[in-house]
Amino acid sequence: MALPYLVRVLGPDKFGLLAFAQAFIQYFNIFIDYGFNFTATRDISINRNSIEKVSEIFSSVLVLKMGFIGLSLLIISLITFSFTKFRNEWLIYFLTFGVVICQNIFPRWLFQGLEKMKYITILNIIAKIIFTLFIFIFIKSTVDYLYVPLINFIGFFVSAVLGLLIAHKYLRVKFIRPSFNELKRQLKEGWYLFISTIATGLYTTSNAFILGIFASNTLVGYFSAAERIIKAIEDLISPVFHSVYPYLSKLFEESEYKAVIFLKKIIRITSIVGVFISLLVFTLANFIVDILLGSSYHQSIIVLKILSLLPFIGGVNIILTSLTLLSFNYKKAFSSIIVGAGISNIIFSFLFVPYYKQIGSCISVILAEVFIMLSTLIYLKRKKIKLI
Q: If you write DSSP's letter for every residue of 170-216 in order, what string do you get?
């Protein structure tokens, strides 16, 4: 809701700066998460009948995340004050990192594992309402751009605090001192996913970041504005996948055959819906940009048309990777495929972005997603798992 207003008030240049800062800080978000949104979710789902075990998992994840937050803050400080490009706008990077802290303290993995998705929905709505209201109240011109990450921080801070209170009061989850063995186990369980999420960042976050190195903030703004539209569409779909994962993990424990049948149904539905959405976005790209972004962003139209492939390709890839490979416990394969996609995207970016700027970023994203789809299908075929 706030995007059309923000892009118009801030303009491509300041909006591009905000997008560049978010792309930079997103690397640390990936590091702090460490794949816990999947590994801890699965752990809690399996042990949901034991509140003591759930509390132990919950506490271990929080302790590890706090350690990662401290280390990340140190690294951000060193980078920000060592390079002119970052030092000139140092405050925006630290405010953006504040949002990351709140996102990682919010116990999403606990609610997902216990299949209490209503809490995630309600608290996310609260954070977005706060953000949206404050944006309209306080952002009046380009000079107010620093208020954007600050307002975002306030929204997620409220959401994180309420999430922890709900976990303690209503779900009876307690914070206990985790054992060294449990901390070690969590790190070991999440290692392959950690590597894969870093690689995921290489083909998602890195595009705006690399574009910002080779091009102006304005061009980053054109790319990021269109990318936000696509991500907003994907965000409408992603809660379905997150809600399915705990159920699928439990179903797989009962019967591998039933899990495969369920996956086939999900991938059929995803493919049909994805194709429809992609065609709709491509066809209406001019209209969408004019309505949501305004006349200053006409160069975003071609970006949106290229990225319109993502609702289809990305949706299918989530089923093939995050649901299928992880449910079958093919963590190493999952990690290898994502790492390959990340490396490929970096190579494509450095090949295309210096010459084609934001168009080069789009091409890199699509090629990386195609790499994931083909690699996963080939691997599953070798394992004699036929979903398509």
A: TS--------HHHHHHHHHHHHHHHHHHHHHHHHTHHHHHHHHHHS-
10-residue averages of pLDDT along the chain (388 residues): 84 92 90 84 84 88 94 95 88 94 90 83 87 91 92 92 89 85 85 75 79 90 93 77 72 78 86 93 95 92 96 90 81 85 90 94 93 93 80
Cβ atoms of 315 and 272 closer than 8 Å:
no
Rounded distance, CA 30 to CA 25, Å? Answer: 9
Please state the pTM of the whole predicted model: 0.77
Q: Evaluate whether 377 touches 320 at the Cβ level (below 8 Å).
A: yes
Question: Is there a contact between 174 and 55 (Cβ–Cβ < 8 Å)?
Answer: yes
Cα dihedral: 58, 61, 66, 70 (round 10): 180
Q: Which residues have C-beta within 8 Å of that of residue 241, sequence separation ≥ 6? A: 318, 319, 322, 323
Q: What DSSP state is assigned to residue 386? A: -
Closest to 289 measured CA to CA, from 4, 12, 1, 5: 4
**What angle do helix axes 180-203 and 331-382 make, rounded to 10 degrees?**
60
- Cα 101 to Cα 29, 73, 244: the distances in Å are 8, 10, 26
- What's the CA gap between 100 and 109, in Å, rounded? 15
Residue closest to 79 by CA, chosen among 90, 70, 68, 69 = 90
Using alpha carbons, list the distances in angstroms from residue 174 to 57, 167, 192, 303: 10, 8, 28, 47
Q: Closest Cα to residue 362, out of 232, 210, 233?
A: 210
DSSP assignment string, 262-317: HHHHHHHHHHHHHHHHHHHHHHTHHHHHHHHT-GGGTTHHHHHHHHTTHHHHHHHH
The predicted pLDDT at position 322 comes to 78
C-alpha 88/C-alpha 74 separation (Å) is 18
Q: What is the Cα–Cα distance from 191 to 334, expressed in whole angstroms?
A: 12
